[in-house]
Fold:
Amino acid sequence: MTGRVEMLGIMAALPQELGDLIADMRATGEVETITLGQREYHVGEAHGVRCVATLARIGKVAAATTATALIHEFGAEAIVFTGVAGGVHADVQVGDIVVADTLLQHDLDASPLFPRFEVPLLDKARFETSPELSALLVAASEAFLEQAGDTLRERFTVSRPRVHRGLIVSGDRFIASHDAVLALREVLPDALAVEMEGAALAQVCYEYGVPCAVVRTISDTADAAAPASFAEFLMAIAGAYSSGILSRFLRSRS
Ligand code: ADE
Structure:
């Protein structure tokens, strides 16, 4: 995508993952909230960018229906997803940030009719994000870690957080065992992180020709400690990361 969009869609699964976005929108000006399909869509302006922000809730169906509504009901011309994920690659640690350049549904398997992971009749397993939006998210994430890294290290037990860019995989499963992580690494050695929505958003955006981007902070390493690590990270830090990244990203687009 080049140039500015008139209306940017911003999605997360859970309230903590949107950080202060809706409060920032209310502080800036009027926010219209519209309820549709049991979700609230907040239309207004944040950090100089006209946007519609919403919570999809968890899972691929939730993400796909919400993305479709953002495009068709609210005129979103690009969509950004922000939230947490489990680290899959050995180099990816709690507190790191992963920006997707491609996304894939790790639980999609219509073999032998179609190759494993391929979306039937779409001839595609991996869905690319917008290089421009993703580059801006990488820059915003790096600036956030540069400026907030010391505070994050002091207040929370994250050590030397880093920004990664690459494959994020999505499925309707919370991954919480080392064996499951090893299985993912074996079939998808380039997978950096796992979550439950991003690839569904990317498929919808591909089908409608709408640019998208996904940024995830690593809340756990998808092993037996994942449920506790996820819950603690979500309550304690996820909002600070999302607010820090989104505010810098939006200002770079305004
Ligand atoms: N989101 C955050 N952590 C996750 C995990 N371990 N599995 C799936 N989605 C996640």
In short: The chain has one domain: 8-253. Residues 84-86, 174-176, 194-196, 219-220, 222, 226, 230 surround adenine (CB under 6 Å).
